[in-house]
């Protein structure tokens, strides 16, 4: 039994963390919003490509780093922590490994960053669709790559995601190997969960810093028990979700029989934890947390956007099925 | 990263499972928090000790197996999965002994540890007083030096002492320097309850068992060897114990995993409303999540990072989880939930979790101040 990060995992995570601290500060996330300057994102994309992040979970012989889902989770948390406004998590976790497994010729261009691929979610909604050259669509049985028509950017809670809706999801078949498709779907769920853990950490860090400085009644508001208890609970939620997400990554990497339910657990815990942390963070900030000038909203809105795609009900169904629980007929 | 047993761990698990299968009483023992039940549980403890399962992580010379922390977790998992009896030696094995290992003299260790493991000495905890609960440093029970006799004279009152009416010994804090500030001037004492001047009165808890006691000490003489960890060092020594109590050693995931499995078992036997079904699933998820949280924590610990104040996170989570698991089961039982039974009794017991070992309000303060670094009031 051993559930510690290896030295290599810590080193890679720290490298990514430093890169994102420099290349993806709140200003860059803001630049991704409609009124911003999206060219500011190019440097971030190129830096991540150069570091080899897109090929992290691609075998070395296919030009990647040869890592697995266990190694990816700490990186995904960092992508969430920084609210990276590009389909980085999707590329590294879903797109590149799938193209590699399917032997798709477009892999090298994806790894180099030359081709940007977004991942379609439910209802053909495509986060970062307006910034992508191609869109990967996962159905129950197939993975297809679509060269999207120019679509309007949809008004959405998280304007940094340049969300579009695919009008035509036909594209061309990448694979209909059920194993590859189901792995890709599980990986997408893992990516969302791990980013939500990272987002939770970011919102909590911002809040801890703020309540330590903001003074009312002559003292920092962080000295009040009511505030402390909110934040202690927020930390607990994150600390409980994080190991479950990492364990889900391990279960996918090892192809454990329980992997589908492990991922479902991760989704339920992480999405609800991050949403609770968002609420606590906004509440403990007071009015400043309810502005767009302060940075907190960037991370809270990403949280809500990711959580919206989680379909917790479906995961509870999956878990109930695995536990052999029977619902009374409606 | 490896979340399955190594071959050694698997062998250990198999041995524990086999012994428990053959040894656990077929009919559950009466509650160990009653006089009759306590005696039956002590017999069980002696059986555990004879087979060297009483304190698996201890050195062999004290009756343990030198088991790793992983193996200890495995044993706990198997123990609760087997439906084995509650551990009435818990205060001695899981609360006092870690402190003895850290602060005891070799003489104290050699004398006391084997007797703890063998359930010969049965320890209760003397922390709370009528006027000092969450505010533990406010205790007023005192120990006065008796130079001529070479020891100390203890006077005061302890309360909420779990199984105090059935135990043989008490460990607790007493004020040795009344002039010192609250947290200073306290000393950790080890007191045999048959010492002249000690009066123990048991009383009923919320769950109806005589599980509580108040302990009156009136000029009780103990020798210098009754001091654990140095005179006026009691706060530091006691905090080491509460760290164990809040965290892992008091509540490993095993008991919650087993409760979650029993809950799922109960749920499978009936048609569930969507609401109940989700409740069961969520309770089960939280039990799994606590186990994974613990596995991460043990890995950190083995890498040399002590949980410290983070053990308050364990306490917050397992205490709420325990209530949730039982409340969910009662929900499924419907009208039958008011009848006496393992779930209703377990529910009443679980309600004490957020109170004992430092209330959850205090734990949240500790997490906020010492983990998150928020300013003190």
Quick description:
The complex is a heterodimer of chains A (330) and B (377). Chain A has 330 residues and is α+β, with helices and mostly antiparallel strands.
Topology diagram in text:
The complex is a heterodimer of chains A (about 325) and B (about 375).
Chain A: H1 7-23, H2 26-31, H3 42-51, H4 69-81, H5 88-101, H6 107-112, E1 117-119, E2 125-126, E3 134-138, E4 143-146, E5 164-165, E6 172-175, H7 178-213, E7 215-216, E8 219-220, H8 225-253, H9 259-285, H10 296-308, H11 312-322
Parallel strand pairs in A: 1-3
Antiparallel strand pairs in A: 2-5, 3-4, 4-6, 7-8
Chain B: H1 7-23, H2 35-50, H3 69-81, H4 90-103, H5 106-117, E1 123-126, E2 142-146, E3 151-158, E4 169-175, E5 186-192, E6 198-203, E7 212-223, H6 234-246, H7 254-268, H8 274-302, H9 311-333, H10 342-350, H11 360-371
Parallel strand pairs in B: 1-4
Antiparallel strand pairs in B: 2-3, 3-7, 4-5, 6-7
Strand portion of chain A, in percent? Answer: 5-15%
The end-to-end distance of chain A, rounded to whole angstroms, is 44 Å
Shape of chain A: globular
What spatial form of chain B do the alpha-carbon principal axes imply? globular
E-strand count of chain A? 8
Kindly describe this structure.
The complex is a heterodimer of chains A (330) and B (377). Chain A is built from eleven helices and eight strands. Chain A has a domain of 143 residues: Butyryl-CoA Dehydrogenase, subunit A, domain 3. The mean pLDDT of chain A is 97. With 330 residues, chain A is of the alpha+beta class. In chain A, the strands form three sheets. In chain A, strands 1-3-4-6 form a four-stranded mixed sheet. Chain A has a two-stranded antiparallel ribbon with strand order 2-5. Chain A is 55% helix and 7% strand. Chain A is globular and about 65 Å long. Chain B has 377 residues and is an alpha+beta fold. Chain B has three domains: 91 residues, Butyryl-Coa Dehydrogenase, subunit A, domain 1, CATH 1.10.540; 113 residues, Beta Barrel (Butyryl-CoA Dehydrogenase, subunit A, domain 2); 125 residues, Butyryl-CoA Dehydrogenase, subunit A, domain 3. In chain B, 46% of the residues lie in helices and 13% in strands. Chain B has eleven helices and seven strands. Chain B has a four-stranded antiparallel sheet with strand order 2-3-7-6, with no helix packed on it. Chain B has a three-stranded mixed sheet with strand order 1-4-5. In chain B, strand 6 and strand 7 form a beta hairpin.
């Amino acid at each position: 039994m051993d559930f510690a990060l290896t030295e290599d995992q810590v080193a890679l995570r720290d490298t990514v963390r430093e890169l994102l601290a420099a290349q993806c500060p709140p200003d860059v996330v803001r630049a991704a919003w409609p009124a911003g300057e999206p060219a500011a994102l190019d440097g971030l994309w190129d830096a991540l490509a150069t570091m080899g992040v897109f090929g992290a979970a691609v075998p070395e012989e296919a030009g990647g780093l040869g890592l697995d889902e266990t190694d990816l989770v700490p990186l995904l948390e960092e992508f969430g922590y920084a609210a990276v406004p590009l389909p980085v998590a999707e590329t590294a976790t879903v797109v590149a490994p799938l193209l590699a497994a399917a032997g798709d010729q477009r892999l090298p261009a994806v790894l180099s960053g030359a081709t940007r691929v977004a991942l379609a979610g439910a209802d053909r909604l495509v986060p970062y669709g307006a910034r992508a050259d191609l869109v990967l669509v996962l159905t129950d049985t197939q993975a297809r790559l679509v060269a999207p028509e120019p679509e309007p950017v949809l008004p959405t809670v998280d304007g940094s995601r340049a969300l579009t809706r695919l009008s035509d999801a036909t594209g061309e078949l990448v694979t209909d190997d059920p194993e590859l498709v189901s792995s890709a779907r599980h990986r997408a769920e893992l990516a969302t969960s791990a980013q939500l853990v990272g987002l939770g950490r970011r919102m909590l860090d911002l809040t801890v810093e703020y309540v330590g400085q903001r003074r009312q009644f002559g003292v920092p508001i962080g000295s009040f028990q009511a505030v402390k208890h909110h934040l202690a609970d927020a930390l607990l939620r994150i600390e409980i979700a994080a190991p479950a997400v990492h364990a889900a990554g391990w279960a996918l990497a090892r192809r454990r029989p329980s992997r589908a339910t492990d991922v479902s657990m991760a989704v339920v815990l992480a999405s609800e934890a991050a949403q609770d942390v968002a609420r606590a963070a906004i509440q403990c900030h007071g009015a400043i947390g309810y502005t767009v000038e302060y940075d907190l909203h960037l991370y809270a809105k990403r949280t809500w956007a990711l959580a919206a795609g989680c379909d917790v009900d479906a995961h509870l169904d999956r878990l109930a099925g695995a536990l052999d629980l029977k619902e009374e007929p409606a | 990263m490896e979340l399955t047993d190594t071959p050694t761990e698997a062998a250990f698990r198999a041995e524990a499972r086999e012994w428990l299968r053959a040894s656990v009483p077929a009919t559950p023992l009466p509650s160990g928090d009653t006089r009759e039940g306590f005696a039956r549980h002590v017999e069980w403890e002696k059986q555990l000790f004879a087979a060297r399962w009483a304190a698996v992580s201890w050195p062999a010379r004290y009756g343990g197996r030198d088991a790793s922390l992983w193996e200890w977790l495995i044993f706990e998992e198997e123990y609760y999965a087997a439906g084995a009896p509650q551990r009435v030696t818990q205060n001695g094995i899981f609360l006092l002994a870690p402190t003895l290992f850290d602060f005891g003299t070799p003489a104290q260790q050699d004398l006391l540890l084997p007797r703890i493991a063998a359930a010969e000495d049965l320890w209760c905890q003397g922390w709370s007083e009528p006027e000092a609960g969450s505010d533990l440093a406010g205790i007023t029970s005192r120990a006065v030096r008796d130079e001529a006799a070479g020891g100390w004279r203890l006077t005061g009152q302890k309360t909420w002492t779990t199984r105090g009416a059935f135990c043989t010994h008490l460990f607790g804090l007493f004020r040795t320097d009344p002039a010192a500030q609250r947290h200073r001037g306290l000393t950790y004492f080890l007191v045999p309850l048959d010492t002249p001047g000690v009066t123990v009165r048991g009383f009923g808890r919320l769950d109806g068992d005589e599980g509580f006691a108040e302990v009156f000490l009136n000029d009780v003489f103990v020798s210098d060897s009754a001091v654990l960890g140095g005179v006026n060092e009691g706060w530091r020594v006691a905090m080491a114990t509460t760290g164990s109590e809040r965290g892992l050693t008091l509540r490993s995931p095993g008991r919650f995993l087993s409760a979650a499995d029993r809950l799922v078992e109960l749920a499978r036997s009936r048609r569930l409303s969507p609401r109940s079904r989700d409740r069961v699933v969520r309770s089960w998820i939280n039990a799994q999540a606590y186990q994974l949280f613990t596995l991460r924590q043990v890995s950190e610990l083995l890498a040399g990072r002590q949980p410290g104040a983070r053990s308050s996170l364990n306490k917050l989570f397992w205490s709420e989880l325990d209530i949730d698991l039982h409340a969910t089961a009662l929900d499924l039982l419907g009208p039958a939930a008011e009848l006496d039974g393992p779930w209703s009794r377990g529910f009443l017991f679980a309600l004490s979790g957020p109170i004992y070992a430092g209330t959850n309000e205090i734990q949240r303060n500790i997490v906020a101040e010492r983990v998150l670094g928020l300013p003190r009031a």
